[in-house]
Amino acid sequence: MKKISVAHSPDADDIFMYYAIKFGWVTPKDAVFENIADDIETLNQATLKGEYDICAISFALYPFVKDDYALLKTAVSFGEGYGPKLIKKKGTKLKRNFKVALSGEFTTNALLFKIAYPEARITYMNFLDIEQAVIDGTVDAGVLIHESILTFDESLEVEKEMWDVWVELSGGGLPLPLGGMCLRRSLPIHNAINYENTLIKAVDVANKNRRVLAPMLLEKGLIRVDAPTLDTYLDLYANDNSVQLSEVQYQALDKLYELGYKHGYFNSLIKAKDYLIPSEYESLRAQ
């Protein structure tokens, strides 16, 4: 059977949404999924190089790969009143040109940060190293993502919620787009539809069976956090809103791409719905 590479990040929500496939609860038709886990910016860079058939990405990357990858409708993470956090040492005051650590050039939080803080001096590092870099004084501040937003050191404090930056830039009323998945356009369309449907089903099954799946992931040591933190984190990023993109989520993506285009980070203005897999193809072919 055909082997399809599926890359996702090692953070709790991505692992949770994928492992219904890994545990054999959901299987694709006529294919075997081979999963790879790596940090999100490494996956963004890999997608720019076309390394994987299906890959988790930051939504802010997508305009750069739209010609080679279709945007998937599932395994999405949005913030609803929360998201990445700009943190610093307690009691310090940041200068206008403060040095900041971000988790990658193509991450969504980096796009929003650069628009909001044009004078900051940016350095990029693995998201797991950002908290310690702030504690050590290597940087003045850092933007925490994934589980780090819940567990950072008590010597640190939040300077700014990236949710608040999003609200200020977008005008409010929309969830914060963070990450999703994309699929190589060179795959045959009927296969692409099959793979997307498999992933939709996997996320749905995981979500509906969270009380069974979450303890399994913890027991196997696949998650970096404890059970209460995992429960809180899944409430935020792997929930009913992760199964399939909704109308308001499409609107949020379009606003993100509008902001990126307006501020010169994207060279064209795109609409998310124009870059989906045309799932209606199967029903038309059957007529």
How would you portray this structure in words?
By secondary structure, the protein is an alpha/beta fold. It has two domains: 186 residues, Periplasmic binding protein-like II (D-Maltodextrin-Binding Protein, domain 2); 86 residues, Periplasmic binding protein-like II (D-Maltodextrin-Binding Protein, domain 2, 3-Layer(aba) Sandwich). The chain is built from twelve helices and eleven strands. Strands 1, 2, 3, 4, 5 and 11 form a six-stranded mixed β-sheet that branches. A five-stranded mixed β-sheet has the order 8-7-9-6-10. Strand 7, helix 4 and strand 8 form a beta-alpha-beta unit. Helix 1 packs across helix 8 and helix 4 crosses helix 7. The longest helix has 20 residues. It is globular, with a radius of gyration of 19 Å. The mean pLDDT is 92.
